[in-house]
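HUMAN:
Just now I want nothing more than another pair of eyes on a protein record. I would be glad if you read both lines and explained how they fit together. I have put the entry right below:
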Amino acid sequence: MSTAARIVASLGSVVLFAACGFALTSLVPSLRRKPLAPRLAWAYLLGLAYVGVTLYALSHWAGFDLRRGTVLTVSAVPIVLAAWRARLVRGEGERPHARSSRIQRAACVAAAGAGSLVSLAVLSHAVSGVESGFDARMTWNPAAAYVRAARTVNAPALLDASVYLQNPRYPLLLPVLRVAGQEVFETDDDERISRPLYGVLLPVLLLLVFDVARPFAGTLAAALTAFAVTFLPGIVFDVDGGAITSYGDLPMGLLWGGGLVLIFRAPRRLPEALAGGLLLGGAALAKTEGLLLAAVVVAIASLRAALRVIARRRRSLPWSPGTVRAAAGTLAVFLFAAALHVSWRVGVPNRNSETWDDITLRGLVSGTAARLPVVLPLIGREMVRPEIWSGFWWLVPAVFVLGARAFMHPLARLFTYAIAGALCVYLAAYGTSSWEPVHLVHPTWNRFLYQLSLPVFVLFAMALGQALRGFPRSGVT
């Protein structure tokens, strides 16, 4: 396959998922009114989740082959729906923004310029170089090859216990997306073809951090945060999970983070709830821990909806059907993805990987309590590694203290609850693993933080914005 054809196929897959997701954003009011750049970032995530989850379900439950016709048909459905909707609704534009000050414009230009240059470097590496990360070559690349060869997620190599595989029960959303691109463009199994699927996630992260943080933190704080994230070495260049690799941590984290943003910001809107549930479903099918992290968000959203209904009843107010419909919509989509995850997983014989299937509550509590004093210092050591974080975690406490009032915002509290729930999942994993903590924390903790990147960076921007408002020139934010 020629270099030109390979690059066209690589970027064509990205365009396919983005086009499908862009059509989906037209069905979500809060997304279709956004400026083009952040809308494209949301579109890419929605396209990944929709195409991946749908193909996964059709392959596993309905026996459809993962071929070009199936992929194009699935991708065409939202495009047709969006075209039909466009004929009925016209004249809806993006929301106007207040005029920015000179310092705000300078910060935005700096963030956009730096983000573009670094993203271009990552994308150039993706289309020209082979994968260098260990886990991708051990798990994700072989899984994609087996799925491509069998044209199904129920590949014989996965179901045959005599075949030696590492982590055969890892969910297959990302390998399915890789196969989808390969099938549409009829390529060979060159791993460079699918690497841009991951490389594009860096500009997606930067755009989402700015887009989500700006209404609450201000333009300056959002731009400064995006600028700082651009130069965090780990997020970008870490060969064990950064944007330059084909690991599943950043994709799963963005799907999870995007889902919680949509669900928490619009608790009464059904389209946002369904879109958020779709992103959470994608996270649940992208990595094993994604199912647990998505369950945390769904539990928080369901509890908030229940408390609102109870509060209104106590005050003798009519109940809010919008809140209940939105929570039910999120729950339904998540349960669909969770059922798919479990249904596929139970059919795959476990070998050469850890499992939570035989863990008891007593073992979970005792193991976590016993290992916590050992794990926490190792975590602290990872978070101050300059080659990964460049001192970012030294800055966070100061910004959070100066901008502590930002945590009074309901969205900040919900983000904090979700992050706390995810941290509990991670610590429980450390408490029950057969690995010694000294050998476990180093290769995993920073990857866990990459998974939490969107809500963590948005919280940082909100605190930074609040801190900047405390300066004499309050108009800078």
Remarks:
- The chain has a mean pLDDT of 92.
- The CA atoms of residues 430 and 436 lie 9 Å apart.
